[in-house]
Fold this protein.
Amino acid sequence: MKEIYSLAEIKEVIETEKIVLFYFTGENCNVCKSLRPKVLESLQKMPEIKSYLVNLEKSPAIAGHFTIFSIPGILVFVEGKESIRAIRNISVVELENKLQRYLMLF
């Protein structure tokens, strides 16, 4: 999972990738730290999905743009459109199932 720092970079990735996942986190978020390896494990089964880490403490304007007021957060864009939004209480199994359904379309 590559770290991304600017809104311009995020917009470019959204426009160029078919399916992209953004994992929103913060430095002092223990839930974020424990959830991230589980999300990464799921993503290893789906190499077609590009994933990026966004530290909202380093880039607070991004949180405002995407209206993310709590972390951890996951946004998935499919062909440029927000398709999955999971904030705070995230089920990795449910997320993986949703991602698999989108992958079946391609």
In short: The beta strands are 2-3, 19-25, 50-55, 73-78, 81-87.
